[in-house]
Amino acid sequence: MTVVGPFGLSVHDQALEADVQNGLAAVEAGLLDATKSEVPFITEAAQHLVRAGGKRFRPLLVMLASRFGDPYAPGVVPAAVVVELTHLATLYHDDVMDEAEVRRGVESANARWDNSVAVLTGDFLFSRASYILADLGPEAVRVQAEAFERLVTGQILETAGPRGGADPVSHYLDVVRGKTGSLIAVAGRFGAMMSGADETVVDILTQYGERLGIAFQLADDYLDIASDSHESGKTPGTDLREGIPTLPVLLLRAQAEEHRRPDDLALVELLSGDLADDTKLAEALRLLRAHPALEQARQDTVRYAEEARATLAPLPEGYAKSALVELCDAVVHRAN
Questions:
Q1: In angstroms, what CA-CA distances link 34 with 38, 43, 57?
Q2: Looking at the predicted structure, is the pLDDT value of residue 230 above 50?
Q3: What φ, ψ does residue 158 adopt, rounded to 5°?
Q4: Can you tell me whether residue 9 is helix, strand or coil?
Q5: Angle at 204 between CA 201 and CA 208, to 5 degrees
Q6: 3-state DSSP call for residue 258?
Q7: pTM, entire model
Q8: pLDDT bucket at 202, cuts 50 / 70 / 90
């Protein structure tokens, strides 16, 4: 057994492991090449998050999905680069909107330079992704455009918040489907599509990617509260401190509104206040970790991961399918 990928993914076949590692190395080289500019400052800003590392979860999914066709097809690696560039571009923009100071354990672009530089660098990455995409054909352009529309719609929904009378939890899951699920779905779709896999397989891996993407985000929500060291480079409680509503908090609010228990209402009030003070943040984390809402959020994460696993059933057995199943297990493990 060997290990590859962002979560210590076990690969039980040496040929598959070597191919995936080679593919990810080619993606890394492609990312560095795509973020070069004749203007040195643009190169520095564009490569800031590339060089900070990251899970490369989306390129890994592209590589595994391509195993159901020809994994050496010329469009596979460029498609993985497109997906990761798009993801990186959204991070630059997200950090501006969230006023984040840290990303992947390093200073965010907006903190290192300013908001204008961060926004324009994100735009630069989008343009480079589009340039590569143009060589992959009109169908790839359409798929990416639809996903990008969903991604932006999810961001707008998050910014606008739920309309009066709407269920905040359902609204949040719609946000996650758009902001996170859509692009991970494209990773599965591109991998299968660029490898020439059957259309049925393409559809299965698209559905798988979307469900896995939702589970992936919900696991991050859970880890922001439950973990002592956050995989993303953020310290625990970062989302709480920034006032970002995540699933555990929304579930807590729903329970507090329904049952009106004094302890729940007091915790909601604490979370609604200023958590810049480390003592208050630590108290909020302590109380949330003991609250049933956190366990419910974990169970929801597991449910979406299991749904992703179930979509794989029609695919032929083999090492690639086993690796995709293990990705579901890895996401669940993060939430345990």
A1: 12, 9, 19
A2: no
A3: -65, -45
A4: strand
A5: 135
A6: helix
A7: 0.89
A8: very high
